[in-house]
Amino acid sequence: MSLRESIEELEQKEEELRKRVNALPEAQKKAFYARQTKELKDPDTYASLNWFFLGGIHHCYLGKYSLFAIEFVLLIVSVIGLIMGNMYALIIIGLLVIYELPQLFYSQRIARQHNYNLSCAIYDDVRQS
To answer: Transmembrane segments in this chain: where (predicted)?
Structure first.
């Protein structure tokens, strides 16, 4: 998943996938759309979680639990460090902010890329069955 990929490129890839799905036999097409409906994530919900909640809870929405755990533990440790007077905790918080800013501003694109990758995996599974 690359943040450098433009929205136009992503839309083009999504359109190509739609064409491939529409070329499937009817039973496979139904199976694809049934699975896709259950598993796709809403980009707006991901963006909202990213904007309104601290500690990386938005990673849980996309199923990235280990990334959430790492980010949450770093946040808690750094807040405790600040309370105890450790100024190195500011460096950890600064690094977390630097890591989170691109995710914050590109949250819609991240969720759409996640959905595209998920749809490709579903397509491959359905085609092989």
So the answer is: 72-99
